[in-house]
Design a protein that fits this description.
The chain is mainly alpha-helical and 502 residues long. The protein has a domain of 213 residues: MetI-like (MetI-like fold), CATH 1.10.3720. Helix content is 64%, strand content 4%. The chain is built from 22 helices and five strands. The strands form two sheets. Strands 2-1-3 form a three-stranded antiparallel sheet. A hairpin with a 5-residue loop joins strand 1 and strand 2. It is globular, with a radius of gyration of 28 Å. The two termini are 54 Å apart. The relative contact order is 0.09.
Amino acid sequence: MSQNTTTTRVQPLESVTGVQLAQGIGHRPTKGFWGEAWDHVIRRPGAIFGIVWVSIVAFFAVFAPFMASGFPLIERTLDESGAVTGVTYPLLHQLTATDILLVLGSFAMIPWLLLPFKMGRSDRLIAAIMLSVQSGMAVIAASIVRDVVSGRDVSNRTREWEQAVWFAPTIAAGFAVVAALIVFWVLPFQKILSRIIAATVVAAVTAVLIVATWSEPLGQFDYRQREAGGQIEAARTLVPFSPQEGATDRDLKPPGMSLGDAVGETEAERLAQSDDRFLLGTDSLGQDVLSQMLHACRLSISIGLVSTAISVVIGVTVGALMGYFGGWVDLLLYRVVEIFMAVPVLFLLIVAAAVLPRNTYVMMAIIGCVSWTGSARFVRAEFYKLRNQDFVQSAKAVGLPLHSILFKHMLPNGVTPVLVDASFAIAAAILAEAVLSYLGLGPANQASWGRLLSEATNQVGDFKWWLAIFPGLAIFLTVLSYNLIGEAFRDAIDPKLKKARV
């Protein structure tokens, strides 16, 4: 005799009583502050759209040199009979230390943040950021020295030093070691040995890549001519144009025009077999718009993140001092804040960009050094509320140093509004860079959405729609995405709205 068995499915309870909660029925595990805020953010469609779009821009910022380049991935040299006599990899020789470090860091960060470790995920994120800062400081310092010693106004002795075998390794190793010593003290590892290993590995990799990419990249794009003449065979990237590579006639071409249509008749006959097309058209110099759009993602992301990081560091430091001490310290420093608030930011940026060297690092520093007042006021208000709390008085009583009280105990409890405001600051920095590039004061020889947008209307008043729609839409969506993310986080941490949701 068979016995029928039934499976009872337990439905989740919509409401429970106090007795049931005491019995463990309907109990839900509590989440941390940021976990609860993140759950609220991802329930908003606008925030999801912003996260997806920023992720797309970040992806192109990392992989644009590998996806859009006029240098072939593989170049096979052919003899007169068509046999392969040699194989080279031109694209690899054109990569910079930044290109390689971004790819290595992207692939290393995914398992570092997702795999289970004893170290907390927030500490792992801080460690990844600090190690990225270490590598970035060494690369930036080495690139500045390389640009200075390779300039036109240097002495013959300096040129001899640059050509010496020991010069590049010495500069790379020196800056890598200095950056490692700076970051070593702030890494969130408990064991000193772990700090030493992490800082040393990053310093070694950074120094090796700086030395390997010390020489200036070539600016010659004759591969198509050589390929048309039967001298080589080339395997190209997804977008076979570099941002600085222009067509022969250097004229504005609408989207969809092929390379053979974009050059003169003689050149067209030589490149008749080429089917490369300008998918988004070209600018006034005959340079591919799509390639510039992809490479400009890195400029926008880096300008936004680095300048905001600089402004947050300055603002948090000044705001912490004002809120903790009060009195004459607050009075004096807040007058400085009011001075910076009274200065027209855009006018100051234009003047500074016109006087100082026009490169990415200078623009990061300019935007970061004039946009820190918001962070300072947020931190000042939070520290005013926290300085009389019991844990702060206890820290003073046990004799902790000032930097430990401010940045180790008080700052974690008052930095939340600053982090939310940082998303709006990133959007403002991207918009400021686009405005400066639109005015012709952006980084020289650097692909930029603002510079492309400025060419939508030429000197005779002709309007080129593709130079207005594509870069304008990229600027709009990027700024909108950061604002949507910041708005979602602001609503998630608002105490009044949290009470309403409960």
